[in-house]
Amino acid sequence: MSLLILHFLIHLLCKRQGKMAVGTFSDEFTSSLPVAKLWKVGVVDSHVLIPKITPQFIESIELQGDGGAGTIKIFKFTQAVKEANIVKNRMDELDQENFVYKYSVIEGNDKYESSSFEIKLEASGDGGSVCKIGGEYTTVGD
């Protein structure tokens, strides 16, 4: 659960410090939570959990849609986040069977022409999970 939140905060802080460039990134984390539980709390219900865990940064996350592919997530940030008040993500894929979530930022960050991300959860040998995160982005003017 906290791994996906960590991904979000790392992504947010990198943007805030202006350290991203054109290209891709990937990272991998492990969790003691089973895949299905991590998927539910970290992806499916993240719009409920993230504002509770990071109230200093995120005021709310609103869903427009049924929660599946095509749904828009609207992140409303607190005043601590100077670069954006609102960011909108489009859920491009939500594969419940294979635990794959893909999304694109569609509005709210004028530093990027485009950015898309993928989160894939897999079972680990010890009953926990492996969370693989990747993304592609293009900064404005590149």
UniProtKB/TrEMBL annotation:
<feature type="domain" description="Bet v I/Major latex protein">
    <location>
        <begin position="20"/>
        <end position="142"/>
    </location>
</feature>
<comment type="similarity">
    <text>Belongs to the BetVI family.</text>
</comment>
<dbReference type="GO" id="GO:0038023">
    <property type="term" value="F:signaling receptor activity"/>
</dbReference>
<keyword id="KW-0732">Signal</keyword>
<dbReference type="GO" id="GO:0010427">
    <property type="term" value="F:abscisic acid binding"/>
</dbReference>
<dbReference type="GO" id="GO:0004864">
    <property type="term" value="F:protein phosphatase inhibitor activity"/>
</dbReference>
<protein>
    <recommendedName>
        <fullName>Bet v I/Major latex protein domain-containing protein</fullName>
    </recommendedName>
</protein>
<dbReference type="InterPro" id="IPR000916">
    <property type="entry name" value="Bet_v_I/MLP"/>
</dbReference>
<dbReference type="InterPro" id="IPR024949">
    <property type="entry name" value="Bet_v_I_allergen"/>
</dbReference>
<dbReference type="InterPro" id="IPR023393">
    <property type="entry name" value="START-like_dom_sf"/>
</dbReference>
<dbReference type="GO" id="GO:0005737">
    <property type="term" value="C:cytoplasm"/>
</dbReference>
<dbReference type="GO" id="GO:0006952">
    <property type="term" value="P:defense response"/>
</dbReference>
<dbReference type="GO" id="GO:0009738">
    <property type="term" value="P:abscisic acid-activated signaling pathway"/>
</dbReference>
<dbReference type="Pfam" id="PF00407">
    <property type="entry name" value="Bet_v_1"/>
</dbReference>
<dbReference type="GO" id="GO:0005634">
    <property type="term" value="C:nucleus"/>
</dbReference>
<dbReference type="InterPro" id="IPR050279">
    <property type="entry name" value="Plant_def-hormone_signal"/>
</dbReference>
<feature type="signal peptide">
    <location>
        <begin position="1"/>
        <end position="21"/>
    </location>
</feature>
